[in-house]
Amino acid sequence: xxxxISGIRSEISWSTSSQITVFGHDLVDDLVGKVGLGDMGxxxxxxxxxxxxxxxxxxxxxxxxxxxxxxxxxIATRLTHYGAPDSLQSAVAAGLLGLGSTFVGSIxxxxxxxxxxxxxxxLEAEAAKIVEPFVAARKxxxxxxxxxxxxxxxxxxxxxxILDENGLSGPQVxxxxxxxxxxxxxxxxxxxxNVTGAIGAIASRLGxxxxxxxxxxxxxxxxxxxxxxxxEIGSPTAPTIWEEVEKAASSHPARVVEP
Length: 259
Hints:
This protein is mainly α. The protein has helices at residues 27-31, 37-46, 52-63, 72-83, 88-96, 106-116, 123-136, 154-165, 172-187, 195-205, 210-234, 238-249; strands at residues 13-15, 20-22, 25-26.
């Protein structure tokens, strides 16, 4: 008979009175002071520590997404902090909740179609299979296109260079470049592989499950949002944002509702 708890098990970490083990590594002796935060993130997502090239690459992925200016997520963090200055974590969480299909979360979509493609086959044909349904449905293709960075996203190109420099090249990058090419051709626009598309392709090359790929952005942006909270404390923007929005929203004559 089941004792009710025997099915609850995690292979990630466990502890004794004198030791903490993470994926088989002693936290104190093997990890603390010996691996960076990026390497620890890689360990959590893959169950193993990265090799030197993988470490460089994964850290580059996270660095590329830490900061992106006054985006909706940063504004949400600042406004939440204004309302709850005693709760830094709530402010950061508010910003992270906005990481969806438009911002950062497109990493997941890009990683998914890269991982579901036949990378050993005709990449041009595989790209067509990816592009055609999006174009037919008039939907954005995750990881493709950018309103500012044209004809290339410099962040994506730098990440691709680092991948090559570390001997990690694979079919994932040619595939997503072909997706961008075909999408641009079909829509008559300049549609570069953007940074989230690059991260989705490279995360796939590193063996990171597409279902966790968005987590790379979540990890990175959490660091950046803490920075936004700190700046907000010293140089507040939230009161001005609130005032301007309230002024604009209520500047028209009130609508009279007839009984």
